UniProtKB/TrEMBL annotation:
Single GO MF annotation: RNA polymerase II cis-regulatory region sequence-specific DNA binding
Name of protein: Zn(2)-C6 fungal-type domain-containing protein
Domain Zn(2)-C6 fungal-type: start-end pairs: 23-53
Stretches that traverse the bilayer: 551-572
Keyword DNA-binding: yes
Assigned keywords, A-Z: DNA-binding, Membrane, Metal-binding, Nucleus, Transcription, Transcription regulation, Transmembrane, Transmembrane helix
Origin species: Cyphellophora europaea (strain CBS 101466)
Amino acid sequence: MTEEDQHDDDSLHDKKRRRIALACNACRTRKSKCDGARPKCTSCTRLGFDCVYAHSATSANVIVGKEYLVGLEDRLVAVEELVKSLAQGANGQHQTSPYHGFGPAANPPVSQQHVSPGRGADADRAIVLAAEGETGYFGPSSNIALVRQVTKAVAERSWDGDTATQLNSLAFGPLDDGRPMPDTRPLDTRSNDQVPIDAFELPPFETLQARVYHYFQWTGILYPFIHPESFMATLATVRNSVSDVRRTWLGILNLMQALAHNIPVSNDVEGGELYYRRAQMLCDQQTLESINLEVVQYLLILGQYLQGSQQTMKAWTTHGVAIKAAMQLGLHSSEASKNLPQVDQEVRKRVWFICVLLDRNLSMTFGRPPAIPDHYVRLPPARPFSTLPDKAERDSVEFFNQTTTLNSIMWKIIERLYDGNLGCGEVVSLAETVSHALRIDQELVEWECSLPSDMTLVLPVHLANGVVPSRFQTILTLRRHSVHLLIYRPLLTRLLSWDGHRVPDASTSTLLSRASPNAAESTARSATECIEIVHTLLLSGDKAKRTLLGAWWYTLYYTFNAALTLLTIYLISNTPATQPYISGRLDLADIDQSIEKSISALGQVNPGSSITGKCELFLGRLLKSVRAINELTQETTAAGTSTNQPAPLQLGTGVLAPSGVATPAATAGDMNWENFLLDPGQLDDFVFGM
């Protein structure tokens, strides 16, 4: 045999598949070829499956490569070193002097710098300070900022100066948005991480069709940026095969199913998580590199799902990518789509409006600058897809357009009253704040007056009289209240910061005396009506009425935000230095009752959810302290004395706690402020609106 023949023979052998003694479970189930690579074969790596090699009792001749054994030894050594370091860290933490998290410590333990306590005995401890580089920014329009301001005010009105300073540092400590959060999913959900997932697997067609209908009836009717007829036509082809369907379309289909498991409540977290993971596998980085309209739609619906999950931080990042992709396609431009069919033009326009809507929403809730300036929104209002639309489609389009107008007002609020959420220290002057607030409030009133008859706002008295509004009316009303609460918050937080140590000058005092009473009264009315609507619908016992509220995480935001605003007004009314500015216009008993209703309503928003439980617990503890401050103020007023530094207070008995449980009396010295102040860094996972 010549040397050339020998080379050809060797090449032939190289092309033959190497025989292996054992295939992994995933390849055996799929009846596909397995190359036996350890710890994960090539096929499982490519498809994202978990690769498990199961040895049967008769597999005595299985040969394990030396490289695999060496790898196992290396991994074992790494695990042993990790366990050893964790044990040493735990011992060091117990041996050091007590560090309770109040203010900056000289050399805080490493574990306290980076790790948040888990859902064990220390689950309700206060803020754990993180390294500055790991913090997230939450600007003035966010609920996180309001939580800090309210807890700071409670501290200043309840404690001596030294303790108040410590608590202020705690309330204003950096928030770690990257630390590991407790896994509050059911155990069955966590076990999915070890179960192989087929990204192309779909439920029976009838079930699939029902879930798609559910999406268009629940979410799609409020955010109509996917053309129903086109989507259902593609869905019909899936009955036979998924091979001819685009991966991004399948990703959207899986996210629709995930939302169906999560709206109106999280009745099946495990199922929603499964479809979310399938969508991720289908639309990997390589798939999303080729930008088209369907990719933007996928990113938008992904962001919607993430808002109701325990991965809300990803919603901000995902939406940022969606905006850049939309601009790349020219969705903001009428010129870019003028030669397209009418339906395509309408879909592109609506996708751009959804980008703007979610941009305003995330900017408001995170307190971060909007990515889309208002002058970028120049396209005409949305129109029905069909020439002869039915009432449902007409109402959906009208609701969508009214929401777009409301978001334009929200832009002005963030830009003019919150300085664009830039947080550069350039605070808007009081005169400008009052002027802008009055002008924007008038614009909001004009928007209300322009609403068509079937979109008029809901009043609590309507519900009390048995009137059942539409879901469009209910959600539009809650959105309006949420926007209105933002208008006068800068004015109220200025008053909240004056605890007697900081006294305004004569001109400032005069301006506040004129503007504050109406501002406080108007804001309290909006917050009270918002809570009353949610409380009535959730506690009615009628499932049909409950569905009027929409997605549970939006209801949670509206209720929590309204309660925080009422607590702000409550504190201002209980402070001698600020009482004169809003006195005589508010009934504190009604405000107290509304906050109680918000706490009982939160327990029904999404029963069994740890997120709603945290909000319920936080408001209950905060209300307890504000009531105690109120009692102290009344006693001081009755005694005819005035003091800027109240004595340690006595908390009253029978104060409402979460789920209506009465709590025993406690003195200020016995009060565990670490348990009172829930970690605001945990609150950022669920304060979403619109």
